[in-house]
Amino acid sequence: MIYDFCILGGGIVGLATARALLARQPGASLVLLEKEPGLGRHQTGHNSGVIHSGIYYAPGSLKARLCREGAAQTKEFCAEHGIPYEDRGKLIVATREEEISRLDALYERAGENGIKASLVSQAEIAEREPTIAGLKGILVPEAAIVDYKAVLRALAAEIEGKGAEIRYNAQPTAIREGGEAVELDLPGGSIQARKLVACAGLQSDRVARMAGLPIRHRIVPFRGEYWRLRPEKSRVAHAMIYPVPEPGLPFLGVHLTPMIDGSMTVGPNAMLGLAREGYPKLSMNLRDMVDMASFPGFWGALAKNIRPGLDEIGNSLFKRRYLAACQRYCPELELSDMLPMEPGIRAQAVGADGTMLHDFLFLDTDRMLHVCNAPSPAATSALPIGDMIADRLLGA
Hints:
Oligomer: single chain
CATH superfamily of the domain at 1-86 and 146-216 and 358-396: FAD/NAD(P)-binding domain
Shape: globular
Number of helices: 11
Helix content: 25-40%
Number of strands: 22
Strand content: 25-35%
Largest sheet: 8 strands, mixed
Radius of gyration: 21 Å
Structural class: alpha+beta
CATH topology of the domain at 1-86 and 146-216 and 358-396: FAD/NAD(P)-binding domain
CATH class of the domain at 1-86 and 146-216 and 358-396: Alpha Beta
């Protein structure tokens, strides 16, 4: 049997792509291969659960459009499938005078992106969020929270209901493209598909290289280390509380996020990882380390971001420094409030010149499309990203 479509990767982008392909070609045969024993074991299952609004992205950019469309589609999908979500809103606060001009520029960007937002004064911040300190803020009321694992389960049930096959523990050892199909060697045999889409996240560069594609980038893992606040502090804020982001960095800073299960997290930082899939602290993987060290772009990225990198190392090593970053906007937090929590690992694509890639990166051939970079917030934007990938693959 030759499948019409094969999807590599059981994260939210892979499942959304499968859904989009089956919507365009009802009755098509589709197999989704996941190397883990379950879905969403990496980036999808370790994110902060935020449905983002798109306020941070350049007006008119693809990221801004996909985020805005994705937020609406995610909420609609949740409503259709009975998945709880809450419009908690996002409050971005300036805690220093030098941040106010950046905050004002961010507010102007919200208007250009068509995002509902309002400026709030210091007094209004105190009225809305009594425990939060800020000189000035932006309120984005439509930002929401959800459990993306629940979204993933609903997507899996939907595509299986349309005839898709999901295989677990199915990591390809070779990928060969021929004139009629793409052949993949798997444990226990091989399969063929007329079209392949690889949504391999943290392993996307290696999968592309396995398939014979020339790549000029590498995936560099960044650990997002979180703390969960003790239950007594789970109501320290109603909205999500974010600092003003540092210019030029793809990370949003340590923030307070209420979770859909009623808990409250603080984080993440953005610590360089030494293992792409090593979640315990101080995890190291020799192959991953050699891969980074042998890539000139890694050293270029390191040189360009040495100061924020040192700050993140300090926050990772010293809990009190991490706390100090949170106390800028939530002074009542104490060390005893912060309980350990499993981190997430972000797949950050880095170019050969050391530039961190902030936009989508696709590599394709006649029968393959490799998603080599699906930038944050990919979970929020997954449904329209899946549509975009399906259209590209089918030449729509």
